[in-house]
Design goal:
Protein name (chain B): Succinylglutamate desuccinylase
Structural class of chain A: alpha+beta
Largest sheet of chain B: 13 strands, mixed
Distance between the termini of chain A: 47 Å
Number of strands of chain A: 19
Helix content of chain B: 10-25%
Radius of gyration of chain A: 20 Å
Shape of chain B: globular
Oligomer: heterodimer
Keywords (chain B): Hydrolase, Metal-binding, Zinc
Distance between the termini of chain B: 45 Å
Order of helices and strands of chain A: EEEHEEHHEEHEHEHEEEEEEEEEE
Number of helices of chain A: 6
Order of helices and strands of chain B: EEEHEHHEEHEHEHEEEEEEEEE
Helix content of chain A: 10-25%
Number of helices of chain B: 6
Pfam family, one (chain B): AstE_AspA_cat
Strand content of chain B: 25-35%
Organism (chain B): Oryzomonas sagensis
InterPro entries (chain B): AstE_AspA_cat (IPR055438), N-alpha-Ac-DABA_deacetylase (IPR053138)
Strand content of chain A: 25-35%
Chain lengths: 315, 325
Amino acid sequence: MSSRDLVLMTAPLREDFTIPCHEIGPAGNPAVSFVSGLHGDEINGIYILARLADFLTAVAGGNYPKLRLAQRVLIIPAVNVLGTNTLRRAWPFDQSDQNRMFPGNRMGETTQRIAYSVLEATKKSAYRVDLHSSNLYFEELPQVRLYDPTPEERETAPLFGLPAIMERSVSPVFTTTLMYAWKYWPGQSFLLQVGQAGSIQLPHCQQVFRGLVSFLGRIGVLEGVEVAEADQEALYFTRECSVRIYADRAGMFVSDKSLGGWVSKGQELGYIYDSFNGTVRTRVIAPAAGLLTGIRRQPMLFEGDLLVRICTRTP
Amino acid sequence: MPESAIAISTSCILSLEMPYSEQLCIRRTAYRGGDGPRAAIVAGIHGDELEGLYVCQLLADWLEQLARENPAGLAGTVELYPAMNPLGLDTLTRAIPVFDTDLNRNFPGSPNGDLPKRIAHAAIENLSGAALVVDIHASNIYLREIPQVRINTDFADSLVPLARRLNLDLIWLHGAMTVLEATVAHSLNSVGTPCLVVEMGVGMRITPDYCRQVMSGILTLWKDQGVLTPDVELPPLDHLPLIADDSNVHYLNAPTSGLFVPVIEHWTDVRKGQLLGTIVSPLQGGILSEVRSPVDGILFTLREYPLVYEGSLMARVMARKGRLA
């Protein structure tokens, strides 16, 4: 396995630490860069990329005779190493969000130095993919997120074979993210949202793993992959297709629904209970028919919290 | 109420149900005198910043005394919002707990979103149209700052003249950084409500001298604006600000990890090459790195929390440009 240290840094009281990455395949600039774990608690992406590294290393080692890695792939399973080891979303030492530190600075704060190294290593790849997992509260159907996409990115997005593609515009709040920094460079950039932070949702991870392998096959980086053309149709959703249900009352939200199913208008999606006396405060009803793409899993609600996102076929 | 009395009231600008039985309320105390302009103080946007809370207390005391001794002295209205992030203050968290989001990256907010968006929206709704808003911050737990005003260069022309009267030691002009568009100050300044951002002291502590210093400046500005009548007696202004911008501020980031031990007092003149502190190793003893000033200037930021990682900011030195205000 070809791995190296992307960042080498001293720590005050324990061993020096590194951010390791995999570089697998023929020499040269990586054609594809995969990044995850900018947030230390987003474990799905870390799991998927670690497993992908294992798989591609086996391919490169000749363990899959029908497969051949035609171009180099860079994989950073976890950027926020300390956060991953301490189950924190932010960079634990100063609580800064590693994904608000881009493009970074070689001589700046610790997280700016890390950001600089991550961007330097990935920016020249033709394809760049950043995997996230929502947060501890909300579960997302595996999806490709496109931010102010180019026509080429729109065309490529279905190659991941995930059930949903969601287009968003870049808000001023996101100008210091890796995604935004990538967009200054030629090439295509994608963000994958997978499940919920804090744990592994295995079916989502398996789906995305298969998706990444198909993607590498379809863009010609991994030769010999049999891509099932009958893969489910990827649905394309603009922001206008997204219907959000917010909590009209505080309390406990409980739902037995799983993501990825179609719901009809008027269908019951869950209940908000009064968490002191147990009465039902609100029956949560689908306001429109569509695909259930996001649902709240942490039950304790403030008034106004996002409960459910449904994507409709037409705006 | 007799004529020329000051009406004092505390009310909720936003009340919201919490998950279990409780209600969250963002509170404001208003002092209403005459029909003159309205001024506001905002504090506690970050739950680990307490300096502004003490400034609110000092101002509230001062206004109570004015109400007793010279109620006609309040020509307008003063509003104090000491705790914009009450849950953060309750739990010693900088961000808004549960939502794990920086309230000062959620402006202008929205009336129907989640808690951070609603607080932001309620704040903007209530603050817009004021003659002057002062948003008081306290650095963070890592760095100690001298009393200063930070101004986005986009609004420098209108805000610098106000900032000069705030009795602080530094006006720091910042380039237009896109991410800061989501702050309360940027949102207010964008809609024509002047908002000054004060940074001073250190997180989770109060520095009473700094608080009294900025209080004098705030009272002076209120008088300038006509919120207070000209006859009201105020503590004197005894500080004149230096002006810093990106061209004369030098950042000293740690070249290695360890324990930073300063050998110099905060807020002093330093010479180029002068030793400011050392980074030492608690494990093996000895000095890992010396921290020296890169220029002749003034030490205006000094690390308060001693543990440093490679890259951690230890100090900021402002080179003297001779631009004394």
